Amino acid sequence: MRSLNKEAAAAISLIDEDNGRRVRMGHLAFVGSHCTNGVSALHTELLGKTLFADFAALYPGRVVNVTNGITFRRWLHQANPGLTQLLCDVLGGRVLDDPAAVADLADHATDPALQERVMRVKRANKIAFARVIRDRLGLAVDPAALFDVHIKRIHEYKRQLLNLIETIALWEAMRAEPTRDWVPRIKIFAGKAAAGYAAAKLIVKLANDIAAVINADPRVRDLLRVVFLPNYNVSLAEAIIPAADLSEQISTAGMEASGTGNMKLALNGALTIGTLDGANVEIRERVGCENIFIFGLRAGDVAERRNSGWDVTETIAASPPLARALDAIASGVFAAGDPQRFDRLTQALRHADDYMVTADFADYFDTQRRIDALRRQKEAWAKACIMNIAGMGWFSSDRAIRGYAEAIWQTPI
Asked: Which residues contact 124 (CB under 8 A, 6 or more apart)?
């Protein structure tokens, strides 16, 4: 090991000596591990350049990348038997044992008969999931509407709040122009908040309060519904994912290590709207730029804004739909009898916005309208769904385990 000066030694010390002595658990984990995996190409690069830059220089080759994966046996074969049977019919039984075989579906992406079959499978899954919503919430939703799905742990960086603000802006736009050719949407949220995470729990409350107001509005009854499903777990995910039309992967760029929900949803024929973050980067490479909707700041842009500062007030003023949505929350539209209920959320956005919600809103809102435009083109939408399914073979956990065996464990399998 090369000799270190005092400052460099302090930077990699396992003990933080500032303001009392504390163990640096991340440092301890790095030193005690054979390798450190970033679990996606982008996050691995960020680990090597930021969080573990000193260790990466001291131990070259310790930071490696094996992008994580999902098990097709659960998230396709078990969760979506209709799509599994379709794949077997088109590609043969080999798809049951070789996830990479789904890539050949791309050769049939323009086949009208296949497009129709894929959409029939999707509709059957949506009908089944609509029953789940009715049974759990007593809410009727139209399976013909676009099922816009955001299922993740509730966290500020995962930006359920961005989606909720866009929901309000869409609601207000629909009320202003009720005769416009809107694409009907069901906004579907599910996820759990940590018990002590007050802001996350407030976001859950906001989602439910927005749902109560919008779902009771007769002016948008056939155009927009908001669903928050409680007690999210794997079994519920197995019902939601095959029914999803749109997959929300909108974390603040640079903060999502990889994600696996993005893989599960795309494998089941959902199109992704997302930031260029985590495994979204690799999904785009494999499904094609035209079959994924990328928006917003990149990781480097986020870091630059945080370091240099930026004018949140000016950003909000530049987007009237954003300003109106924030004003609606702040004025108590969704908190009857308690107008200050969501002040913690709105004040954080107006004065700091650490997670770039306002910075990304305009691009996010516009990208959602591009999704509406594609949705109106049935053949083009079906083709994009097929290309997403076909592009997911690489994201199998079988491939990830082989990668671990070769690059990290260095053992034959």
From this structure: 82
Please report, as a single letter, which amino acid is at residue 274: G
Q: Is 260 exposed, middle or buried (0-12, 13-18, 19+ CB in 10 A)?
A: middle
Residue whose tokens read 């097709």 = 72
- DSSP designation for 259: -
Topology of domain 72-397 in CATH is Rossmann fold (3.40.50)
Domain spans, the chain: 6-65, 72-397
Please report how the helices 160-176 and 320-330 are oriented relative to each other, as an axis angle in degrees rounded to 10. 100
Instruction: Write out the two tokens for 149.
Output: 């799905």
State whether residue 327 is helix, strand or coil: helix
**How do 36-37 and 63-64 pair as beta strands?**
parallel
DSSP annotation string for 145-201 = SEEEEEES---GGGTHHHHHHHHHHHHHHHHH-TTS-PPPEEEEEE----TT-HHHH
Give the integer Cα–Cα distance in Å for 22 and 14.
Answer: 8
Q: Would you tell me how many other CB atoms lie within 10 Å of the CB of residue 275?
A: 28
How would you classify residue 17: left for phi > 0, otherwise alpha for psi between -120 and 50, otherwise beta? alpha
The tokens for 78 are 């078990």
| Span 38-62, pLDDT tens digits | 999 999 999 999 999 999 999 999 9
Q: What is the pLDDT of residues 283-327, one digit of tens each?
A: 999 999 999 999 999 999 999 999 988 899 999 999 999 999 999
